[in-house]
Amino acid sequence: MDALLQRDFLLAGSSLGFVGIGTNRRVLYDKKFGYFPPHPSAPKKFCILCCAFEAPTHASTTAKKYNTHPQNVDLPPVLSKKKKKPFPIPIHKLQRAARMDKKMAHMGIEKQLLPPKNGLLVPELIPIAHRTLESWKVLIKGLAQLLTIVPVHGCRECSEVHVGRTPHLVHNCSGSKSAARRSRHEWVRATINDVLVPIESYHLFDPFGRRIKHETRFNYDRIPAVVELCIQAGVDLHQYPSRRRSAPIRILGRKVIDRGGFLEEPKPCESQDSMSLLREIDTYSVLSDRTIPPPADARRTAETTLKAYSTVRSGLRQLMRKYTVKACGYCPEVHVGPWGHDAKLCGAFKHQWRDGKHGWQDATIDEVLPPNYVWHVKEPEGPPLIGSLRGFYGKAPAVVEVCVQAGAAIPDAYRPMMRLDIVVPDHQEKRFVA
């Protein structure tokens, strides 16, 4: 490297970012000062110089930190009810796997399945299933107590829910005859089922046994899908027995060639213990219980309930990676098991074309445990939320909003969607906001 080039390189320093190619003179580019002027006595010849610069370390660290904890995020888009839900797994991957299964079945090769796809339990997921079920009980009990001190309103005509003393004034009702009411909500007192949306599933003694037919659907109990998933993952409840296999099943293509025979399903237990368990795992039992006492320590109960809600979601996420859960692509129906049931109960978009059958596909965690987003109220004792400033308001799951208004600290995972860093302007100041 000649003296002129050394002089330009030292002037550039660590901010040297680009080197041009020229036929007359060497051209260097500095990120801070722009182009370096060529030296008057530089030789005029064609040259190529490749250099690299080292960016400051704090810039990459700041960018990584900003991407990890964004300031504000948008909620998932509301899907149209006149279209089928998108597949969680791309359709071309499903078609490729189906073609491979068909090819192996034509060659007479059995599918090599790992637990729990072959009917056996996964030992490392059994403690997670127990912890998820216990957290589910804590969530229902704590939420029932918090609803005695935190007012929650629900719309009579649509699924809108508001947590706060004064209902909001955002006119976005989509229920029946909403045009005559100019999309105004008809507020009534909400229940626990409005906050924690109940998603039920059929309880199966043998998930790999006979399918549920439309004529035999009343022979099976309906329990929360979270509880059914925990039972199939290893939780033993004598009220809801489940078959535990010691030998794996054998599948050729899509046909089960050896399931170990069919066992007679035991009759459901209707003892006093089963009724007490039902009150712990089902939200409908809270509606009939009029003796729910208010929490002795509202803040501690809110923190315990919020922690239980986070544990349930994390446990579901781990269990659903292994165990199969199906959801209808048109309606909220969920089925826990390798195949969906054959009950013709779907009344969603174009159900006549499907004879009322569900369009089964892989379920997501939000379909098993819907978050049910509500408007976040920064000042519960302040004025109600208005529709003209809805762009400045944030949202949060209804369970989280109830716990936060009861005194729990806001989790870091929900801060971006609550938009805590945005200052809501006054109604007269809105037109001056960029």
Automatic annotation (TrEMBL):
GO terms for molecular function: RNA binding. Coiled coil: none annotated. Pfam families: APO_RNA-bind. It comes from the Eukaryota. Transmembrane segments: none annotated. Residues 154-239, 327-412 form the APO domain. InterPro entries: APO_dom. This is APO domain-containing protein. It comes from Vanilla planifolia (Vanilla).
